[in-house]
Structure formats: C-alpha cells, structure tokens
Amino acid sequence: MSSDERLPASTPRLFVDQPLGLGAAIVLPTPASHFLATVMRLNPGDAVRLFDDRTGEWLGRVDGGTRKALGIRIEAQLGVRETVPDLWLCAAPLKRGRIDWVAEKACELGVARLVPVLTARTVVDKLNLDRLRAHMIEAAEQCGRTALPEMSETLTLAALLRDWPADRTLIFADETGGAPFTEAARPGPTAILIGPEGGFTPAERDAVRAVQGSIGVSLGPRILRADTAAAVSVGLWQALAGDWN
Ligand code: SAM
C-alpha cells in the first residue's frame, strides 16, 4: 500500500511556498505552524500532506521546532504536480465577497489562470490580488490540487484583447445572446470571458467579437449573476472539453 492510502482522511494538507524534496527538513511559516500545532494539535511524528506548486505532494512528519516555527521532515512523495487543461477565466472584478467566491471556484473547478479584466461598467477598480491568491490557496488545500492557478495582473479589456493569441479560443459569455455553449467548447487553449454586474457595453461586445477565435455564447434565457456565469461556464467547459471526462 502506498503511504498515501495509509493516511487518514483527517491528515492536514497545506501549501508551502518553498521547494520540497525527499528527506528535506523544513520550518513552516508561523501561520501554518500555529494551525498545525495549536488548532490541529499535531505532535512530533504526526503526519501532514504538503504541496509546493513545483514538485508535487509530499508526506511530512512533525519534527521539532516550536508552535511558531514547526519543523517538518519530508518522508515520501505522494504525487506529482498536476497538469490542468489550459483554461483561463477572464472575469470583471466584482464586489468583494463575490470575486473572492469566483477565485475559490476557479481553483476548485480546475482553471489554469485567473485574469481580472477591467471593463467600462466594472464597479470595483482596486482589487487585492494577494487576497484572491489566498482564497485560491485555501481552495487548493481543500480540493486536492497540487498546482495553483496563476493569478494574473489586472488588465483592461483592451489590453486583454490586444495581440490575442491566435491559438486560444475566446469564449465570450454574451448576455444578449450567442451560440450554444456546446458549439464553443473544444479541447485546447481556451479563455472564458465574463462581464461585470452591469454587463458589457455594445462597443465592448463588438471589440470582443472582432477578435479572431472569439465565440459569443449564451448561458440560457435567464440573466445570471456574474459569479454564477463564471462558475457555470468553467464547469460546462470542463465537462465538455476539459478534464472531467
Ligand atoms: N447587466 C446585464 C443585463 O442586465 O443584461 C447583466 C450582466 S450579468 C449580471 C454579468 C455577466 O454574466 C454578463 O456580462 C455575461 O458575461 C454573463 N451572463 C449572465 N447571464 C448570461 C446569459 N444568459 N448568457 C450569457 N452570458 C451571461
């Protein structure tokens, strides 16, 4: 039996932003140390699953240190760093709670890159990317991802569309109507573009549709909230063309 199968489901799983390797002795940062030592009450010799978004997932054992700087010795490799489909989610920033939810779902649903896109009707302009990354890390720890979604810098729609890669399909969720999603979803480099609560302007719609490889799609006869549209679109694409089959 692999060391993975012997681990209880309750074994804590954490992201560490440092390269891991067999036999390595690492010291966890204070927040992770506090969580394991004080919240999870781990003792020396107890197991923890660690992944680093570089080398994969590893089995570690608590080995010395303090509640603020816990020592971990890496005992075995549990898995390699995953490969997720090359899917970008390009979404207009939303009010705080909602964009945080979009970041969390983007990670769980297997998005490779999250791209915040400022459009004419975007309400939010200052976006805390570190906060969004933190939500994606927490989601990855929960859902078992070993590769974190890339957190792109915030772009204007014009900057996003400029020099659009010819090999990347741009699926544009158009609330005024478009092709059925099934006609747009195909394996290969893809981006899904979701507008803000106020939707896209006619000029923005024309600019997106002018991009080679862009396809306007309908998400049905009802107007979805932007966060709903983001999650539904990524799920549909994963089921039709991604890694859910
Ligand atoms: N203010 C717009 C309106 O009333 O028509 C609604 C915008 S909607 C809240 C936010 C974004 O979600 C849209 O820009 C679009 O990208 C996506 N969306 C929502 N419902 C959709 C639908 N039925 N078909 C395609 N996209 C949709």
Structure description:
- The protein is an alpha/beta fold and 245 residues long.
- It has 8 helices and 13 strands.
- The strands form 2 sheets. Strands 6, 7, 8, 9, 10, 11, 12 and 13 form an 8-stranded parallel beta sheet that branches. Strands 1-3-4-5-2 form a 5-stranded mixed beta sheet.
- The radius of gyration is 20 Å and the shape is elongated.
- Bound molecules: S-adenosylmethionine.
Strands, helices and their partners?
Blueprint: H1 3-6, E1 13-15, E2 25-27, H2 30-39, E3 47-51, E4 57-65, E5 70-79, E6 87-91, H3 96-108, E7 113-118, H4 129-143, E8 150-151, E9 155-156, H5 157-161, E10 169-173, E11 179-180, H6 181-184, E12 190-194, H7 202-209, E13 214-218, H8 226-241
Parallel strand pairs: 1-3, 6-7, 6-12, 7-8, 7-9, 10-12, 10-13, 11-13
Antiparallel strand pairs: 2-5, 3-4, 4-5
Helix pairs in contact: 3-4, 3-8
The structure holds S-adenosylmethionine.
Tags for this entry?
about 240 residues; alpha/beta; 8-stranded parallel β-sheet; 5-stranded mixed β-sheet; elongated; binds S-adenosylmethionine
> Helical proportion?
25-40%
Radius of gyration, CA atoms, in whole angstroms:
20 Å
Question: Which ligands accompany this protein?
Answer: S-adenosylmethionine
Number of strands: 13
* Class inferred from helices and paired strands: alpha/beta
Q: N-to-C terminal Cα separation, in Å?
A: 27 Å
Molecular shape: elongated
The largest sheet, given as strand count, sense and whether it forms a barrel, is: 8 strands, parallel
- What is the strand content? 25-35%
Number of helices: 8
**Unreliable segments of 5+ consecutive residues:** none
